[in-house]
Amino acid sequence: MTSPAAKSQHLPAGDAAPWQRAATGANLLSPDGTLGVTIFEEMTTLAVSTGAINLGQGFPDEDGPAEMKAAAQAAITAGANQYAPGKGIPELREAVSAHQQRFYRLAPDPHSEVVITTGATEAIAASLLAFIQPGDEVLTFEPFYDSYGAIIGLAGGVHVTAPLLAPDFMPDMDRLEAAFSSRTRVVMLNNPHNPTGAVFPREVLSRIVELADKHDALIVSDEVYEHLTFGVRHIPIATLPGAAERTITISSAGKTFSFTGWKIGWLSGPERLVAAIRTVKQFLSYSSGTPFQGAVALGLGLPDSFYEETAATLQHKRDILAAGLREAGLGVYLPQGTYFINVDTAPLGISDAVELARKLPHLVGVAAIPVPVFCHAEGAERTRSLLRFAFCKQQGVLEEAASRLAGLRDKL
Ligand code: PMP
Ligand code: GLN
């Protein structure tokens, strides 16, 4: 399938790397018939084969709370091993609702306004597939998380982007406004934002709500990094006046609790929208990992101190890696949220971050993700020398990575 989105980016599917085709939603079958892989898989495979420290794909190298692991083990032993209800077990839907109430004063009805999904990835896919008809426009910021481009393409949508600009990766508000049209069906927001680490302030979110209202667009807000912010508070867009009725909010246990492998996510929003997404979800996975659901409900009930300590620990790790990257001569953009830090490699004379990312594990034994892969052509040009490093790793690992990167200058 060649999607309208793929056409609009002038990427010849045959010549493009698999992740480029994924970013455009084009067919992931390579010309030679093998299956394509995402940039995360490509870089993790490279890290494993070279023995490099993997600061590419974002996953923690330590597990989350022991009591959650014990709860999942106990659930398996107790026989929670068959299909869960399609929309998720009641305890977890109630815990999601209580969490939204505790942190944000949102109160989705756990019976009709919450659905448990197979990670945020499925929540994103089911939402976009539920709302987009072929030819509808979907607006995202750029850079954008890779699955947005792929799913928009699979749904036959047209992917329109508005740039985020260094150094703080806030949107160009004029370009944001200009990106809306009468065909905008969905604004796919990501806040805090992967890969840039931006956390959007109230003014930006208000403008998005105004524009979505003006164009009668829905908002799908991916907030998987909601608790990973440093010195700023995450504001769910659904809490803004006029937003709740048109917004689906998505999150996941992967980031908040460091259990990326459990693949438990959730979404909440108005009943009529949630019902449409639930219909699609039935045919994607039907239901999601039964024994993990009670354990995630337990996690969502952990005291505020858990959430505060998680963010504080991560902020400390951010600062360790940032210092090392500066020391290595790279231009560092300090993130306000997520566990990703972006650097400009241009001060080292590098102009192609994709090429560098492929060489970096061989050169210094560290893997990273090139930012242009999260972009269409214009954004790729703007971000051509940027690399993304993940800092959700143990302190010693980050220090070792920093000391290896200090030697990069001499190896170029
Ligand atoms: N959205 C964003 C912005 C992400 O970075 C990720 C990756 N962790 C996901 C969604 C996917 O989340 P999950 O692993 O829960 O499917
Ligand atoms: N979200 C993670 C990242 O951005 C990776 C998830 C994946 O491999 N798809 O690095």
Q: Can you walk me through this structure?
A:
By secondary structure, the chain is α/β, with parallel strands linked by helices. It has two domains: 132 residues, Aspartate Aminotransferase, domain 1 (Alpha-Beta Complex), CATH 3.90.1150.10; 234 residues, Type I PLP-dependent aspartate aminotransferase-like (Major domain) (Aspartate Aminotransferase, domain 2, 3-Layer(aba) Sandwich), CATH 3.40.640. 43% of the residues lie in helices and 15% in strands. The chain contains 17 helices and 14 strands. The chain has an eight-stranded mixed β-sheet with strand order 2-9-8-7-6-3-4-5, sandwiched between helices. Strand 3, helix 7 and strand 4 form a beta-alpha-beta unit. Helix 4 packs antiparallel against helix 12, helix 5 runs parallel beside helix 12 and helix 6 runs parallel beside helix 7. The two termini are 40 Å apart. The N terminus is likely disordered. The structure holds 4'-deoxy-4'-aminopyridoxal-5'-phosphate and glutamine. Glutamine binds next to loops. 4'-deoxy-4'-aminopyridoxal-5'-phosphate (PMP) binds next to helix 6.
